[in-house]
Recover the amino acids of this structure.
């Protein structure tokens, strides 16, 4: 039987919009976004095989009824990908709460919203990296879950207060709600240094133990007894830039729904 393919039309304009909402995890975000843009300018139609992780078909609104947090384990996505479909960080964060409140709550606890990627943020990011300066709202490179660019990005400065090292996370809006509050999935990691990827692209390198960063987020938000949701089996993995990571298969659950009432 011949292999089935879906033809997915990718618009350059839509990519530009996505790049502006990008906030960088695994690379100097400005260069990563420019590289992604070049890929789509060369190929405006991407031919993806059935079952590709980059397809958006499964992002249609689900009719699955969610009544409690444990139900989320069987329906939430488990992995993020680069624009070209290469694996990035696994999902290790679940947040329950409405968007505006999440933004306010994270800001209150020392987390900065990542700037949209544009000419100004591009220049600021380059200067911050070259001269080892701080950039609390620095953009975050693109990452995708089920073919969708992340919705929000946050970062927390380190003691050294430099753009080369930072705590950062990405959040994707899902179609699920619990008690009227939106469910978000995220990836969370610590960028420990700047350097070159295995393919010699400028990149940030992450700390391999993802659970440490979950503990850091919980501590900054004042969570004393962290709740976790098992999404997959524990495993070791590798990012698209060559970095290795240890994943315990669990996601930190941050339930902010009660704070809004």
């Amino acid at each position: 039987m011949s292999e089935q393919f879906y033809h997915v039309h990718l618009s350059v304009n839509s990519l530009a919009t996505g790049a502006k909402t990008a906030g960088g995890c695994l690379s100097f975000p400005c260069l990563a976004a420019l590289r992604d843009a070049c890929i789509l300018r060369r190929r405006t139609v991407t031919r993806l095989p059935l079952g590709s992780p980059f397809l958006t078909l499964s992002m249609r609104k689900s009719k699955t009824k969610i009544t409690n947090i444990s139900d989320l384990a069987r329906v939430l996505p488990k992995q993020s990908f680069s624009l070209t479909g290469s694996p990035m960080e696994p999902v290790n964060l679940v947040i329950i709460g409405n968007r505006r409140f999440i933004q306010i709550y994270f800001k209150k606890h020392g987390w900065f919203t990542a700037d949209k990627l544009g000419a100004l943020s591009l220049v600021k990011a380059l200067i911050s990296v070259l001269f080892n300066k701080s950039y609390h709202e620095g953009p975050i490179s693109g990452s995708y879950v089920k073919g969708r660019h992340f919705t929000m990005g946050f970062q927390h400065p380190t003691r050294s207060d430099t753009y080369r090292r930072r705590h950062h996370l990405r959040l994707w809006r899902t179609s699920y709600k619990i008690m009227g509050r939106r469910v978000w999935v995220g990836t969370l990691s610590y960028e420990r240094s700047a350097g070159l990827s295995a393919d010699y692209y400028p990149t940030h390198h992450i700390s391999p133990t993802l659970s440490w960063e979950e503990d850091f987020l919980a501590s900054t938000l004042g969570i004393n007894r962290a709740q976790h949701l098992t999404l997959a089996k524990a495993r070791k993995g590798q990012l698209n830039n060559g970095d290795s990571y240890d994943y315990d298969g669990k996601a930190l659950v941050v339930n902010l729904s009660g704070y809004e009432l």
